[in-house]
Amino acid sequence: MLKLCDVNDSGQSVWLVAPGVTVGRDQGCDLCIPDDSIAKLHLKIAIKGGQLTLGNVSGDSHVLVNGKPMASACRIKLNDQITIGTRTLQIIDPKVAKLNSSKSKNTAWALRANHKAIAGKVFPVKGGAVVGRSEECDITFSLSHLSRRHARLEVREGLLFAIDLGSANGTFVNGRRITESRVRRGDELRFDSLSFSVVGPADDLDRTAVRPAISSHLMKSPKIGSGEVTAEDVTQRSFSASIAGLREESPSMAEPQEEKLQPRIPIKALGLTLLLVSGAAGYFWVNNLGVFS
């Protein structure tokens, strides 16, 4: 399966699956790129039978395919590069190609305004940014309820953190007032009443899931000794099978030994009885002969 990735940040990527994907800065796009040079809905890629068809739906915005302007819908393929705004995307096969890590310093984070006066406006957060009403801040809003230096945003190893700078009216993540907190894609970040949606790479979903350890009660179940093993209880089944194998291979184990010892007890008793009877018979026989007279 192919993937469309930002050549400078593989964290900005989307799998190319039917019926198609959309690319733009709007958070509703399959590939959301927080960049003002990109239209809200910039590209559509139709996918049918392994064929990819690229369409420019941005209106006047230019699209380059392998450095050449795209006049109308066109076919694209593996390794093609698509340039929109200041970004270059490439079609890759993840099995054979690796782009820069999504945890690089260039990981794209941004704030998308929710306030009606600036709704939809995107504010990129590069290595970090200070938010407040002072002109010295990286992201400035001339609002009296914001502190001069209200909060700081930091990107650490690709993750975004918000730190309140002792503001009077507080910094909030999903409605909870914070001093410092990690924020994720889709979270609401609010400086007093000024609300933003966080735009950025999703958490990594390609990691192999770790299966939970088998519950200890399975190991201790009394069913092992009785041979009652359920289909799901792999540990008990293996344990019982190994015991059965040992019994077949070792005929001298406890149970066979007991069977051999049991008949020895009557044999000894019978021998002692015969010895006593023989001794008594011999005594009477000798006595009858008058040996002891």
Automatic annotation (TrEMBL):
InterPro entries associated with the record: Cell_Proc_Reg/RNA_Proc, FHA_dom, SMAD_FHA_dom_sf, YscD_cytoplasmic_dom
Span of domain FHA: 21-70, 129-178
UniProt-listed Pfam families: FHA (PF00498), Yop-YscD_cpl (PF16697)
Transmembrane segments: 269-286
Name of the protein in its database record: FHA domain-containing protein
Keywords: Membrane, Transmembrane, Transmembrane helix
Keyword Glycoprotein listed: no
Membrane keyword on record: yes
Annotated source species: Microbulbifer variabilis
